[in-house]
């Protein structure tokens, strides 16, 4: 898979995250690992920073629920509008995280 194809796969997966739910950078990387041959949360973060403006970027957080760096206030506002509750400025991952049911297919 080319870097451009991987970028598109990441963005398509982010578009699938339901309102009121989140995925971590690492979970996105893990989900796409079988089809892409890559498994880097940092790479997903870079893709989101460069190309994520057209997708629900606020639904992608780090594994401890921390909001996107530099965009914490806006992300918190958007998530609150979707009914997500934060504790100490972080998403409660145990109740808010989402993972596609079709995780074995990579799509």
Automatic annotation (TrEMBL):
Keywords attached to this entry: DNA damage
UniProt-listed InterPro entries: ATL_DNA_repair, MethylDNA_cys_MeTrfase_DNA-bd, MethylDNA_cys_MeTrfase_DNAb, WH-like_DNA-bd_sf
Residue ranges of domain Methylated-DNA-[protein]-cysteine S-methyltransferase DNA binding in the record: 6-84
SUPFAM superfamilies xref list: Methylated DNA-protein cysteine methyltransferase, C-terminal domain
Protein origin, superkingdom: Bacteria
CDD domains associated with the record: ATase
Protein name as annotated: MGMT family protein
């Amino acid at each position: 898979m080319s870097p451009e194809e991987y970028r598109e796969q990441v963005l398509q997966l982010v578009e699938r995250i339901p309102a009121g739910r989140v995925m971590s950078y690492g979970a996105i990387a893990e989900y796409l690992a079988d089809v892409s041959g890559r498994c880097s949360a940092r790479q997903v973060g870079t893709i989101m920073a460069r190309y994520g403006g057209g997708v629900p970027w606020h639904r992608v957080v780090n594994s401890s629920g921390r909001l996107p760096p530099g965009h914490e206030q806006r992300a918190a506002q958007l998530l609150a509008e979707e009914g997500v509750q934060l504790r100490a400025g972080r998403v409660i991952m145990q109740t808010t995280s989402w993972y596609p049911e079709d995780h074995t297919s990579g799509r």
